[in-house]
Amino acid sequence: MVSIKKLSHSEVHQFQALIQVFEKVFEMENFSTPPREYLEKVIQNPGFMVFVAEWEGKIIGGLTAYTLDKYYSEKQQGYVYDLAVSVGHQRKGVGRKLMNAVLDYCKAAGYDEVFVQAETIDKYALDFYRSTPVTSEEDVRHFTYDL
Questions:
Q1: To bridge 52 with a disulfide, which of 8, 62, 106, 131 should be the other Cys (CB 3.0-4.6 Å)?
Q2: Closest by CA position to 85, among listed 57, 112, 51, 111
Q3: How far is the C-alpha of 20 from the C-alpha of 92, rounded, in Å?
């Protein structure tokens, strides 16, 4: 049975395990996990959330999200930054459970919306998000400035 939980500020070891899942699923070549001290700082940020999926004591997936304070409303938004499920556990409802967990958490906290971006070439991600209880879909472009 897969269980979903939001990590507390002290569960850095589980955050590290999730990063390893991201590294494999996203096929991140030459990736080096940041030091534990840095990850402790990140997970202690009140505007950062980590949800993990566990199966038989092992992290098999998860998502990270940020809280965005809006200047035109007192309500906050949630931004899902990364979501991945280990290859052997995909297409079994784990991703949906993770999305539902972040949506439930943000709704209970009074956020007015949660959003996520997916690359147009990533048909699997697009199909996945379309299968969740999404309210709307926008066609946008993502611009990056390397510094």
A1: 62
A2: 51
A3: 20
